[in-house]
Structures are given as structure tokens and as C-alpha cells.
């Protein structure tokens, strides 16, 4: 028993030393510290225009640790906004859940529910629809919502994507279809976009309870 206890103690000590020596440990807490509640994983989006970056942060018993480099990101063509709104290509500021992922490609793994999407997958953008701002499945031309106001999900930017919980109450006109998705070198319609390789890494890292924190 003493030998087993010593082995466990050695592992604990080694883990604590590794965390203490982590190059990205932040003793005072990052900018989002008081806004994310009990979340232990945060994707932090900060900047303006071409200077916008995404970082992955993990909370340990010793505090927050940045576990990724600053990843270049694209945001809305109109920059950031205090609130989301339909028809406004701005990325909303705030803290939002990251509850699920999807893509045209097979799941890369990770802790979030993942759905493979195809030509019958939509994000309902019809303000008059009872399923506004939700994922729906129906063949084109047969949907019970206005398809011209909605978004088909089988597009290159959604090879991989994570759903951001913007306008979770689904208030008509309050914005919908906000994702963290694959970048194409252009500003978005309000989403956050990064290159495919780091996005796949993020999806594999994410677990239930993670959030995205955004500030301009």
C-alpha cells in the first residue's frame, strides 16, 4: 500500500509541477474570467479585423492556462456588434455555449455531439417559422420554412463547424446560424472562421460545457 501511495503521490506532484511550469499559465485570470461562469474550456475570440485571433483556454485547479497559440481568425464583414441581428454581417460579442458540432466530413472525434450533413440539411432562418434558428432536414423545395431565408449546410465552409449558442431563445430577428467554421480567406456573415487544421484540433478538444467568449 505504501508503494502504491508513493506512486500516486509522484504522479500528483509531477502533474502540479507541469501546471506550475506551463508557459501559458495566467495567475490573474484572462479577460473573460468573470464572464464564463463554471466553464472549464473557453475558446476566446478577441481583436479587430485582420488582427482577430482565437485561443483555447483550459481551467485547472491552479487557474486558467492557454493551451494553444493565437490562431488567426475571420469575423463578420461589419466587425463586432453588441447584439446579433438578422441581415447584419457582424459577429456578436458575449459568451455563448458550444453544444454541438457538424460538418460535411466524418466526425474527427471529441466530446461534442457531431452530425454529418448533406444537401437536405438546413439552418432555418425564416423569422416566421416555428423552427427558426434550428437545424432542420428536408429535401430542397419541400421545407416548411422559407428556404430563401435559410442556409443549406452542405457547403465548403462547413466541412467542420461548431454551433454557437447565439440567440438561444430564438427571438425572431435576433440572428441565427452562427458557427465556428472553416475559413476561406474572406470575412464572414457574422460567424467566426479559422483554418481547417486548428478547427479540427479544437473540435477534438472540446467537451460539453465549453463556451466561446467574444470581444472586439
TrEMBL record:
This is L,D-peptidoglycan transpeptidase YkuD, ErfK/YbiS/YcfS/YnhG family. The active site is at residues 181, 191. InterPro entries: LD_TPept_cat_dom. Transmembrane segments: none annotated. The keyword Secreted does not apply. Pathway: Cell wall biogenesis; peptidoglycan biosynthesis. One of its GO terms (molecular function) is transferase activity. Residues 1-27 form the signal peptide. The keyword Cell wall biogenesis/degradation applies. GO terms for biological process: cell wall organization; peptidoglycan biosynthetic process; regulation of cell shape. Residues 43-215 form the L,D-TPase catalytic domain. Keywords: Cell shape, Cell wall biogenesis/degradation, Peptidoglycan synthesis, Signal.
Amino acid at each position: 500500500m505504501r508503494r502504491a501511495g508513493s506512486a500516486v503521490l509522484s504522479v500528483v506532484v509531477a502533474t502540479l509541477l507541469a501546471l506550475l511550469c506551463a508557459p501559458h499559465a495566467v495567475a490573474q485570470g484572462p479577460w473573460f474570467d468573470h464572464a464564463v461562469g463554471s466553464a472549464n474550456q473557453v475558446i476566446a475570440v478577441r481583436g479587430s479585423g485582420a488582427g482577430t485571433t482565437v485561443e483555447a483556454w483550459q481551467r485547472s485547479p491552479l487557474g486558467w492556462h492557454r493551451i494553444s497559440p493565437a490562431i488567426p481568425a475571420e469575423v463578420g464583414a461589419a466587425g463586432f456588434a453588441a447584439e446579433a441581428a438578422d441581415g447584419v454581417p457582424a459577429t456578436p460579442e458575449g459568451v455563448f455555449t458550444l453544444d454541438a458540432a457538424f460538418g460535411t466530413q466524418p466526425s474527427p472525434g471529441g466530446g461534442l455531439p457531431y452530425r454529418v450533413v448533406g444537401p437536405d440539411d438546413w439552418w432555418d432562418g425564416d423569422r416566421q417559422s416555428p423552427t427558426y434558428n434550428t437545424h432542420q432536414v428536408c429535401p430542397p423545395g419541400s421545407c416548411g420554412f422559407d428556404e430563401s431565408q435559410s442556409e443549406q449546410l452542405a457547403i465548403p465552409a462547413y466541412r467542420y463547424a461548431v454551433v454557437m449558442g447565439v440567440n438561444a431563445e430564438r427571438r425572431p430577428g435576433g440572428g441565427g446560424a452562427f458557427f465556428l467554421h472553416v475559413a476561406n480567406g474572406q470575412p464572414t456573415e457574422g460567424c467566426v472562421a479559422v483554418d481547417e487544421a486548428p478547427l479540427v484540433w479544437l473540435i477534438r478538444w472540446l467537451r460539453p460545457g465549453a463556451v466561446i467568449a467574444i470581444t472586439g
